[in-house]
Amino acid sequence: MFFILITGLLLGGTYALIAMGLNLQYGVARIMNLANGEMLVAGGFAAFWVYTAGQVSPIAALIVVAPVAFVVNWLIYRIMLRPLVKRAKSRGALEVDSILATFGLSFALVGIMSWMFGGGYFNYSYLAQRVDIFGSSYGQNRVVAFSIASLIAAGLWLWLSYTRAGLRMRAVAVSPESARLVGIDVTAVSALAFGLGGAVTATGGALISMFFTLDASVGVLFTMKALIIVIMGGVGDIRGTIVAALILGIAETFVARVIDPGLTLAAAYVLFLGILLFRPQGLFGKKPT
C-alpha cells in the first residue's frame, strides 16, 4: 500500500502541472481549451526529438520548449480566440464557442503531429535507473519529473500570490469587468494567462515523456484528466488543483495495481462524477448562496 501511495504521488505531481496549465487558461482567459492535451503531446514530441536526435537532456530542452509553447499559445489566443471573446455576449456563449474552436484545433494538431512524426508510439530511455525510497524502488525519471513539477508549481503559486502581475491575473479571474474598471488590461492579461498555461502544459508533456509512451492521438486522454482535476479542485484554485491531481494519481495507481490497469480511466470518471454530484464547486469551493 505504501508503494501505491508514493507511486500515486509521483504521478499526481506531474498531473498537477498539466492541470495548472488548463486552469490558467480556463480560470483567467475563460477559454475551455480542449486542445490542451495536444499541447502536452507536442511538448513530449519536442523532448523526444531533441533527446534522440541530439542526445540533449529532455530537462535541458525545457529551456526551449516552454518559451516556444508560450509564444504559440499566445498567438493562438490573439489570432484565433480573441475574435470569439470580442463577439461573445455572455460567458456561456464564449464557453460554447471556445469549446467548438479548440475541439477542432485538437484535430488539426493531431494531424500536424502525425504528419511530422508519424502515427506510431514513441518513448525513450532516460534516467531509467531505480532509486530506493523507504525501502521500495521507483523510476529515477518519475522522481525527477515529480521534483521539477513541484518546483514549477510552487514557483507559479508564489508568482500568482505575491507579485503585482499575479494580482492582476487573479483580479481578472475573479471578475474581468471589475478588473477593467481599475485599469487592468484584461485582453493582455488573458493572452498572458493562455500563453503561460500552454507553456506549463508543454513542460508537463516533456517531463511525462521521460516515463510515459505517447503518440499523436493520446492528447485527448490528458485533456480529460486535466479537466477532471480542474473541476475537482475548483476553477482558478491552484491549491485545489494540486490536491485533486494527487488524489487522481493515487486513485489511478491503486486501480492499476489492485484491480486492472485498463480501468484507470473508469476510476477517473467515477471520481469526476462524484465531484459533479456532491461537490460541484470543487474540493475547497463554497456553495453559492
Task: Present the secondary structure layout.
Blueprint: H1 2-27, H2 36-54, H3 58-87, H4 91-117, E1 130-133, E2 136-139, H5 140-162, H6 164-174, H7 176-181, H8 186-208, H9 219-233, H10 238-259, H11 264-278
Antiparallel strand pairs: 1-2
Keywords:
11 helices; two-stranded antiparallel ribbon; 2 strands; 289 residues; 3% strand; mainly alpha
Question: How would you describe what is shown here?
Answer:
The protein is mainly α and 289 residues long. Helices cover 75% and strands 3% of the residues. It is built from 11 helices and 2 strands. The protein has helices at residues 2-27, 36-54, 58-87, 91-117, 140-162, 164-174, 176-181, 186-208, 219-233, 238-259, 264-278, and strands at residues 130-133, 136-139. The mean pLDDT is 87.
